[in-house]
Design a protein that fits this description.
The protein is an alpha/beta fold and 358 residues long. Helix content is 43%, strand content 15%. It is built from twelve helices and twelve strands. Strands 1, 2, 3, 4, 5 and 6 form a six-stranded mixed β-sheet that branches. Strands 9-8-7-10-11-12 form a six-stranded parallel β-sheet, with helices on both faces. Strand 1 and strand 2 form a beta hairpin. The chain binds nicotinamide-adenine-dinucleotide.
Length: 358
């Protein structure tokens, strides 16, 4: 594991197996420098355990960086459950997973991610207190539950910051005007993409959309007057902004060469195939909103839920702060001629280093 390309001085990596339920998986704790390592649990059909390990290592580091740049007192971690087929995972699997999280004593705090629902987390919560992303409760100012609307709102704010920086849209007539009349291509109309379309439509943007699920396209088409395009063409439309909100690893040398938009700002995790693709976007004059900065709304909600925040405005205030954080990254990128992903990584590492010293 120490020789794995994705290993980045992770503090602790735990492999677990429960014969009774069939649970197999990995918890990777990248850093606890800023607080308990928080990050969701992903259930996925991996080709093999090496692929699961790579995913856990990469995703947990991403959570450290995401939480650090979002200014949360939380470290970064991630769990992966290795699925075997597409049958729904049993309650016994999530009960056993809850026991694993509890056994780690609080250095890792879990939540839902791809393939894991709020209901699954409710099962986990019967076995550990180190869990978030549960239904909102009265004693925490209604904070909690589905993080997607917060992720979508933060992404909307990030798009505004990006179009101001790259397309010279001014704020003279109010912030909302920044995207009015612009065309935005949204790839993926799931929990986040659909909410994002709502925000963009209400702000006066024109939408070009695609999803592999036709019913998701129908919904956005009928509610937000969107134009549907083929899934394979979404990113390469002649639009102002491209917002990937489906899968990661969408930008490499080939796809970047086909982009027509000047702004890439979407919620999908791990959009760049490699760090070098950030440089490619920069060289092509395309402003890239680093994924883990623009999509931090969900972890802000889950994090404040776990930290038992009592101010009902706290989530909204921090999600709104994504706009200023991105504006700062864009400005530093412009003034130092450095790709935005490099600036964001440097900001994250600075926060982690400061946390280790304190
Ligand atoms: P989701 O599963 O609800 O939605 C994903 C959508 O993408 C689905 O509708 C799916 O049909 C579609 N899709 C899959 N492959 C596609 C393709 N090739 N082209 C077009 N559409 C495709 O997931 P989500 O919660 O909306 O998350 C979307 C992205 O945002 C993911 O990358 C996720 O990791 C990231 N993200 C989500 C959150 C959150 O709060 N949910 C937070 C941070 C990051």
């Amino acid at each position: 594991m120490f020789d794995a390309g994705a290993f980045d001085a992770h503090e602790k990596v735990t492999f677990f197996h429960d014969a009774a339920s069939g649970l197999s998986g990995i918890v990777a704790v990248h850093s606890t420098a800023l607080g308990p390592a928080m990050g969701g649990c992903r259930a996925w059909n991996y080709a093999d355990s090496a692929a699961a390990l790579t995913d856990a290592l990469r995703l947990s580091r991403g959570m450290s960086f995401k939480n650090a740049v979002a200014g949360l007192p939380l470290g970064g971690g991630k769990a992966v459950i290795m699925r075997n087929g597409n049958a729904p995972l049993s309650d016994a699997v999530f009960a056993a997973f809850g026991d694993v999280v509890q056994s780690l004593g609080g250095i890792y705090v879990t939540a839902e991610d791809v393939g894991v629902s709020v209901n699954n987390m409710a099962t986990v919560a019967r076995h550990t207190s180190y869990v978030s992303g549960l239904a909102p409760s009265d004693d925490a100012a209604g904070i909690g539950g589905d993080p997607s609307p917060h992720t979508a709102l933060g992404t909307f704010f990030g798009i505004r910051a990006a179009v101001r920086a790259r397309l010279n849209r001014t704020d003279l007539q109010g912030l909302t005007v920044a995207v009015q009349g612009l065309t935005v291509a949204v790839q993926g109309l799931g929990n986040v993409g659909r909410h994002l379309c709502d925000y963009l439509h209400r702000a006066g943007a024109k939408l070009i959309v695609a999803d592999i699920n036709p019913s998701s396209v129908d919904y956005v088409y009928s509610h937000y007057d969107a134009t549907a395009v083929a899934v394979s063409d979404t990113l390469f439309q002649n639009v102002h902004v491209v917002a990937p909100c489906a899968l990661g690893a969408v930008f490499d040398e080939t796809s970047i060469g086909k982009l027509q938009a000047k702004v890439v700002a979407g919620a999908a995790n791990n959009q760049l195939c490699t760090d070098a693709d950030g440089q490619r976007l920069f060289d092509a004059g395309i402003l890239y909103a680093p994924d883990y900065v623009i999509n931090a709304g969900g972890i802000i909600s889950c994090g404040l839920e776990y930290l038992k925040e009592t101010d009902p405005q706290a989530v909204a205030t921090r999600v709104a702060g994504i706009e200023a954080t991105l504006s700062e990254i864009f400005e530093r990128s412009r003034s130092t001629r450095t790709p935005t992903n490099v600036i964001a990584d440097a900001m994250a590492r600075e926060s982690l280093a400061a946390g280790r010293l304190s």
